[in-house]
Amino acid sequence: MIYLIDGYNVIFSLIHTKDSLQKMREKVIHYLQKRFAAKKISGMLVFDGAHRRDEESGLSYPSPLIVAYAPKGQSADEYIVEKIRVSKSPKQITVVTNDRGLRMHAKSAGAKILENELFIEWLKKKKKRTERGEVKETQANIDRLEKIFEERLKKDLGD
Questions:
Q1: Residue stretches of the chain with pLDDT short of 50
Q2: What's the pLDDT score for residue 153?
Q3: What pLDDT, on the 0 to 100 scale, is given for residue 147?
Q4: Are the CB atoms for 48 and 75 separated by under 8 Å?
Q5: Helix, strand, or coil here: 137?
Q6: Gyration radius of the chain's alpha carbons
Q7: DSSP of 66-128
Q8: Is-above-0.85 flag for pTM?
Q9: Are 109 and 91 in contact (CB under 8 A)?
Q10: DSSP code at position 129
Q11: Interatomic CA distance for residues 88 and 117, integer angstroms
Q12: Distance CA 91, CA 106 (A)
């Protein structure tokens, strides 16, 4: 699963501070980088506008989170929808946003949708362990294993 995150939508819906926009971006980038690394997931945090040279992009950190700025003349929403449309497997993409327009376009392009608050809650959760210390399977891992099984079954039946 790849997560495409509407950066400013997340910031303005979840962060209520008088910090500068640059400071808020930095806080969100660092928080998500840590959580993505801990969860071993990958994705892209997309912002409107060009990257400023005096600002960290997030790409200098060992993280599965890419920080991207939409090209001139294109909004972050358009950039995200374009990423979905050119993807070979849009069903493996989850768009994180509360923006109704983006949600509608992303869903029609084949991606899954997740609200900002639910995504952040999910990121905060730690893996659940059984009484014997075994890790319980997540839905994402079950889906991944099911796909592998189906592919192998098709291959075996085709031979």
A1: 54, 57-61
A2: 79
A3: 85
A4: yes
A5: coil
A6: 18
A7: EEEEPPTT--HHHHHHHHHHH-S-GGGEEEE---HHHHHHHHHTT-EEE-HHHHHHHHHPPPP
A8: no
A9: no
A10: B
A11: 28
A12: 10
User: What single-letter amino acid sits at 30?
Assistant: H
Report in angstroms the alpha-carbon separations of 42 from 1, 16, 38, 89, 107. 7, 26, 11, 15, 20
Tokens of 97: 């946003």
Return the residue matching tokens 């979905």. Answer: 84
Does residue 90 contact residue 4 with C-beta atoms inside 8 Å?
no
The β-bridge partners of 75 are none
| DSSP state at residue 138 | P
The label of the residue with tokens 């997030």 reads 58
pLDDT of residue 142: 80
Taken as a whole, the chain contains a residue count of: 159
- The pLDDT tens digits for 64-101 are 899 999 988 899 999 999 999 999 999 999 999 999 99
Q: How close are the terminal C-alpha atoms of the chain, in Å?
A: 30
Q: What's the token pair of residue 14?
A: 């979840």
Please give the Cα distance from 15 to 83 (Å, whole number): 26
- The Cα angle at residue 50 between residues 36 and 42, in degrees rounded to 5: 15
Write down the pLDDT at residue 105. Answer: 96
Residue 103 pLDDT: 96
- Percent of all residues in the chain with a pLDDT value above 70, rounded to a whole number: 84
Torsion of CA 110, 116, 125, 87, to 10 degrees: 30
